[in-house]
Amino acid sequence: MISSEVAKRYAVGLFELALEKNMIDTIAEEMRSIAEVCKQDKTLLNFLTAPQIRDQDKEEVIKAVFADRVSPPVKRFIDFIIEKRRSKYMIEIAEAFNDLVLESQGFLKTRVETAIELTEEETRALQKKLEQKTGKKILMSKFVRPQILGGMIVYLGSQIIDKSIRHDLQILRDRLLDVKVH
């Protein structure tokens, strides 16, 4: 939870810079590239997060790896991330930045968890309902989690809509435990 808050804070700062410089598309592409490199090369991310390595050495490696791939604002942003010892959040920051770009374009990433696979018809109906609720185009990721027993859990931005049977049973259990019997 803390990592997502940190990532969001830095992503917002980068997004504001991108707006100011009118470089949203360029910076978005560069951040996707950085996230991809960090995901593929875990040794780079481990190097950047190692506390025993000097910031100057990290900056030199960043220059070597990303010198021709990123614009000066992104280079300065990466240096800032290293200076603040937040490089371990690089992937999360890039993903949060991408979410902000999508949101500014009228999209909203949504995660839907169900006990069984949704049909295409159910998916379209849910997507339409969520689009009406939010006024945004929904980019839906679906996951099957049998342990929720039935119903669904929808992660809609920062909102969680839990309409699972497991959740309802938990509420019922809590209510029954609160009942005082004489």
Structural write-up:
With 182 residues, the protein is of the alpha+beta class. The protein has 2 domains: 102 residues, N-terminal domain of the delta subunit of the F1F0-ATP synthase (Peroxidase, domain 1, Orthogonal Bundle), CATH 1.10.520.20; 73 residues. The chain has 8 helices and 4 strands. A 4-stranded mixed β-sheet has the order 2-1-3-4. A hairpin with a 2-residue loop joins strand 3 and strand 4. Helix 1 runs antiparallel to helix 5 and helix 4 packs antiparallel against helix 5. It is elongated, with a radius of gyration of 21 Å. The N and C termini lie far apart (42 Å).
| Number of E-state strands | 4
Spatial strand order of the main sheet:
2-1-3-4
Which structural class do you get from the secondary structure elements? alpha+beta
Distance between the termini: 42 Å
Gyration radius, to the nearest Å? Answer: 21 Å
Order of helices and strands: HHHHHHEHEEEH
What's the CATH C level of the largest domain? Mainly Alpha
Global geometry: elongated
Largest sheet: 4 strands, mixed
Looking at CATH, the homologous superfamily of the largest domain is N-terminal domain of the delta subunit of the F1F0-ATP synthase
CATH topology of the largest domain: Peroxidase, domain 1
Percentage of residues in strands: 15-25%
Helix content, binned percent = 55-70%
Uncertain parts: none
Average predicted confidence as pLDDT? 88
Number of domains: 2
Number of DSSP helical runs: 8
CATH architecture of the largest domain: Orthogonal Bundle
